[in-house]
Description:
Number of domains: 4
Structural class: mainly beta
Low-confidence stretches: 1-24
Strand content: over 45%
Amino acid sequence: MKSNAFFRLVVLIGIVALASACEAQEEQWLQYRSSREAGDIVGDHGSLRLQLDLNKPEGVELPEFKADDPFFGKWFTPMVEKGHLLFALDRSQKGGMYDLLYIDSNGDGQLKDESALEAYRIDQYSTYIGPVKVMFQIEDGPVSYHLNFRFYKSGDTTRLYLYPGGWYEGDITIDGGKKRCVLIDHNVNGTFNDKSLDAEQCDRIRIGEENDQDTRFVGNFIEVGDVLYRPEIARDGAFVILSKADDVKMGTVRLQESIAEFSAGGENGLLKVKPEGGVGSLPVGKYRINDWVIEKQDDQGAQWRVRGSRFSDEKGLFDINENQELELTIGTPIVATLTESDNKGTHSFRHNMKGKDGESIELMRNGSRPQAPKVNIKNKEGTYDRTYSFAYG
Length: 393
């Protein structure tokens, strides 16, 4: 009897453990939203500049255009079999702005069966069209996706910019608590699960409170609080699966002790490190430096914050290997430069700050940008002695 009871107990424990594992890795569904102001709503979105061509595409049935010179182009997406969708730009008035858009919204390779979409806003140099709906046929059925277009024309210069018009968001459960999850197609290619060492080719994920703006790169890992998770994101963005990251191979990174925070991104996602005594750790992988932060208080009690970001491709790359320590020589000193240019007797001065690896520097005092620096100019004779203030922007 004791043997049978013990067997049943072991089986019961196994079932509970399996159920817990399944619960931790269940699909958590999100809701799709779209807006012509999607970028302002979700933030941290990318854009594309699309190529335009006056030559008509071969083998494509076209609508009756009003303009004699419509533009044609392709939006590339892995969500359709051909790898792209055709579009055309037309004018409602000859000689006017390009304010009509045809797009192969059903992916059949033709434009004749499409209706013209009108611009909702026109200014001196640009027309705005969107959100433009297209349909993807996936294994589970049709999925909608939205794009926002901005056409720019000034003289002979014509450009077409593309922005995401839709995103996914919703409440998800993590360790028994509710968090808000937002997915953004940052590289505007129709999918929501792109990972890359190039930050511009990574999609974005945000998990936190309702108005939390802490946006991370989509990758193999994501930190929620102090816990590391492995996210699985549906290609079309409809759901996420989060499981705790166990048995992660780690390496050590050594930084200047003055650095309060450091972040790096890649296929592992965007991970933030708060080093202790100049030492922190990251999962094994290849990274690009995202930023570093130094915080200091001066003698008057003011809190200063220096942030370095936007490293060059050559300076920002590094590898983390298992059980090895890597020293990153980032941080101070910061190099301040003053440049002067002369245009027919008019002298212009420019003040700039760069990190020692060429990264951009942001300086804050008590949470705000400090007053711009001044420059004092005087001649050898002392007959000219004036002080000027620089201006931001």
